[in-house]
From TrEMBL:
PANTHER family attached to this UniProt entry: GLUCOSE-1-PHOSPHATE ADENYLYLTRANSFERASE, GLUCOSE-1-PHOSPHATE ADENYLYLTRANSFERASE-RELATED
Entry GO MF terms: glucose-1-phosphate adenylyltransferase activity
Subunit annotation: Homotetramer.
Descriptive protein name: Glucose-1-phosphate adenylyltransferase
HAMAP family to which the protein is assigned, alphabetical: GlgC
Length: 423
């Protein structure tokens, strides 16, 4: 028998989303916005996935801690998540680093970001807290993880990915016994421990933690008083619980949300230009690895009021057309050929231009006869008439950022520098 809403643990839980990081590996894409505020999938932002998972899991009390260049993120949350109502005991509190505990201290680490807001969390009157990273793409039912946390009587439950063992060197890795109790937590080990009974794979941390709030509250107070601590969950809080309490691994496979179209659990860290480009382009495939059309688990976001996409001109070599692509509202494809590309809101592409494997963020304008391939174009960029990108890596690298795999990043400043040089 399914639990009633009042029985669900999510009804007694808050989600605390850590969204203060820059995401420096995304280079110029995070010059003006934090990584969780980076666009993804045609109309959403990265942070929408953690928030939507919480909402769809039944969690109606949420907070989001911001720090680095937070205006874009705060504005998005205000516009897209303002439907939560306090009179229904629903909240999304935005918690910028505001020197609340000390006039000289910002958020010193992930644990400190929670610790500096203890009084606010207390006011939620919750029993459990789910601490989430705000910069990953995935669909997950946190209620299942909460149930495991209670059933195993754990002090902390950590969300874990199953990854090939030698690929786990880039993660925090769980060393577990046969019951998935964590016996050791290793940060980016050179020789990761395998899973009992599955030695070729390892359990890597997703940066998702479940605690009973009273237990975590005491840990955070003690951690704040420790001058030798880095005030971080992965470096300080979790290793302490593993050593002195009961830490349990929760496998993503047990709670990932799949519509039936996904062939395997989907989780992506789109923290590099290459990974960001690939994950967006993957969505244009005939059967994408992530189903954004699943109405049973919607990804909530701010939806701009724009007209439908429009395709115009129907002449030889001047035909507005898109194949194997995602084209958002407000786009005008004017005598332009689009293939295997993802266009965000309000993109305009003009006559005789072509876009192949292009991720164009909102309100990009592509000039006539431009030929673009394998590139990411930042918001609001105006591509000059006749610009060719993706055919000559040496020429591209003179003006734009080119990754090792050949993906080209184009921003307003890069276009301006090229124009100033007379190109």
């Amino acid at each position: 028998m399914k639990p009633t809403p009042n029985d669900r643990l999510s009804n007694r839980t808050m989600a605390f989303v850590l969204a203060g990081g820059r995401g420096s590996r995304l280079k110029e894409l995070t010059d003006n916005r934090a990584k969780p505020a980076v666009y993804f999938g045609g109309k959403t932002r990265i942070v929408d996935f953690a928030l939507s998972n919480a909402l769809n899991s039944g969690i109606r009390k949420m907070a989001i801690a911001t720090q680095y260049k937070a205006h874009s993120l705060i504005r998005h949350c205000q516009r897209g998540w303002g439907f939560l109502r306090a009179e229904r005991n629903e909240y999304l509190d935005i918690l910028p680093a505001s020197q609340r505990m000390d006039e000289e201290k910002w958020y010193l680490g992930t644990a400190d970001a929670v610790a500096q807001n203890i009084d606010i969390i207390d006011s939620y009157d919750v029993e459990y807290i789910v601490v989430l990273a705000g910069d990953h793409i995935y669909k997950m039912d946190y209620e299942i993880m909460l149930q495991q946390h209670v059933n195993t009587d754990a002090d902390v439950t950590i969300g874990c990915l199953t990854v090939p063992r030698m690929e786990a060197t880039a993660f925090g890795v769980m060393h577990c016994d046969e019951t998935d109790r964590i016996t050791d937590f290793l940060e980016k080990p050179a020789d990761p421990p395998g899973i009992p009974g599955d030695p070729d794979n390892a359990l890597a941390s997703m940066g998702i933690y479940v605690f009973k709030w009273s237990f975590l509250r005491e840990l955070l107070i003690n951690d704040m008083a420790d001058d030798n601590s880095s005030h971080d969950f992965g470096h300080d809080i979790v290793p302490y619980v593993v050593k002195n309490g009961k830490a349990q691994a929760h496998r993503f496979l047990d709670s990932c949300v799949q519509s039936g179209l996904e062939t395997e659990p989907y989780w992506r860290d789109v923290g590099t230009i290459d990974a960001f480009w690939q994950a967006n382009i993957d969505l244009t495939k005939f059967t994408p690895p992530l189903d954004l059309y699943d109405n049973s688990w919607p990804i909530w976001t701010y939806a701009e009021s724009v007209p439908p996409a429009k395709f115009i001109h129907n002449e030889e070599k001047r035909r507005g057309a898109a194949v194997s692509s995602m084209v958002s509202g407000g786009c005008i494809i004017s005598g332009s050929e689009i293939s295997e590309s993802l266009l965000f809101t309000g993109v305009h592409s003009h006559s005789f231009s072509s876009l192949h494997q292009v991720v164009a963020l909102p309100y990009v304008d592509v000039g006539r006869e431009a030929k673009l391939s394998k590139c990411v174009i930042d918001r609001g960029v105006q591509i000059p008439d006749g610009l060719v990108v993706g055919q000559d890596p040496v020429e591209d690298a003179k003006w734009f950022r080119v990754t090792d795999s050949g993906v080209v990043l184009i921003t307003k400043k890069m276009i301006a520098a090229r124009a100033a040089a007379g190109e």
